[in-house]
Amino acid sequence: MQKAVDWMFVLTLEWFGLPDGMKKHNEQIEYGYKGSTNDELRQTWMGHTVPLAESLGLDVPAHYDEETERYVIDVPFPAKFDEDEKRWMFEDGAVSWEDVMGRWRKRGPMNEEYVNHLQRGYKELYASEGAV
Prior knowledge:
The protein is mostly helical. It is built from 5 helices and 4 strands. The strands form 2 sheets. It has a two-stranded antiparallel ribbon with strand order 1-2.
């Protein structure tokens, strides 16, 4: 379980997207496309995840700071990820969000197979209905 947390915790923090200072959210929030900013979503998620993980005896690279009343990430963020070893390379320090976006764009070795599977299923479904 700890190995999964070590891999997924930081990856999940990335899923919320760029920090608020790097991207304008005002229009998205104002028009109701989003109910919270990326940083607010990250804080909400950590507010549930960190206490749960700690109650299960799992170590997470974040803690609640009483003074600021916010969760703080205890490792360089965003961090470099070694895709071959499947581990975060915190010792290398933080990387740019452009590095993260490049990693996301690769989509991993199973992406093409996954997309083909979805497309095949879609085509088979609609072919049976005579729609394709």
